[in-house]
Amino acid sequence: MPVIIRDINWEETETHLVLHIPLKGAKANKLDILSSDQYFKVSFPPFFYEVFLYDLVDDDKSRSVVQNGFVEVTLTKQFPRKWNQLSHAQSEDKEAMKCLREEALNQIAKKQKERIEANASLLNTNKREAVRQQMKIEEDERNRIDTIKSNERDKISDEMKQFEDNQKIQRRLAIQNHIKPNEIQPHKTDENQEKKKSIFEQNPTTNSPSESKITAPLRETGRIAVNFTSRVFPTPMRESQTEIEEEWLRKQMESRQAITDLQLDLSENEKDVDYLKSKANQFFQQGNFQSAIGVYNHAIRVFPKMAILYSNRAACHFQVRNLMKCVEDCSRALELLDPPVLDNLPQRIKAHIRRGTAFCELELYAEGLMDYEAAQKLSPDDENIRNDCQRIRNYLEKNQDFS
Question: Whole-prediction pTM value?
Fold first, then answer.
């Protein structure tokens, strides 16, 4: 049954009203505050305190601070003046106070809805602006590439034009050089003409093709054998780190040998994963969580790559309040469930929910919300996950407003 707090202290100025409410030994994370322009309520089970204020306050400018076992609430008055009393004039009228309470709750719900809509609108605006910026960057990049291409085309066109001009000049010079010898040919001496004539009048049969052909000796041939150093890793020797690679190979060999030795020393049931899971489930249903953890420890030593073993052990750790161990096992299970496929979808959802619940129990609500949102993306039709996400968001927004 709720207990009403009556030993509070309050003070006022022309513009502010300050309330000092004792926490009665309760933790700050259990604190829940509701505030409107004429209604204020603070609760931390099993205690609560509410007051219908004498006059209106500005809820948006109000703040609360938890320190030294007290909640200090500072309310800003809408109309600067002294009240000389805290409660409303009709605070004894239950019907009037009931109407004021309902009106205050409706006002708080409306403000909460407007705040969520404003945040959603801001988020959408930021997304649209990010898309516009990305489109502008891509357009600038395309323009830059087009400019480079255009410059390259112009450069090649100029080079081709210059090459054609050079070819024309070379052809013109060649023609000129070919004509000049013909012009000076009549001025040659008769000796040269006779020499030229004697050359062309030689009998072509005097020199046979076999005599004129020069045969060069053939080059000797051979075969070169190329050997490569045997390598376990695909990287070349000049890029590898031999000591680190050999250490890794040694550890892999020791690990495989340890698993082999472990398999040889076990009975058939101790090597049967289905038997181990059923045995651990029996302990879990009986409430013997430590024994279930022991069975899962053995199963993980034998089968270290089975994600379901880590996920189930995380559930056992959660039951005995080993919350960090629960988070670690869920994280390991998610690593082993990569790549994400349809067959491991239920296990991934379960791992995200368990890790998110453990984070919330550790009062890390932001991290817990991230896991619940990941689970909601994997299963968007699950009403329970959607409700849990909304409760965590409401809690975070409420604590942010009064922090």
Answer: 0.38
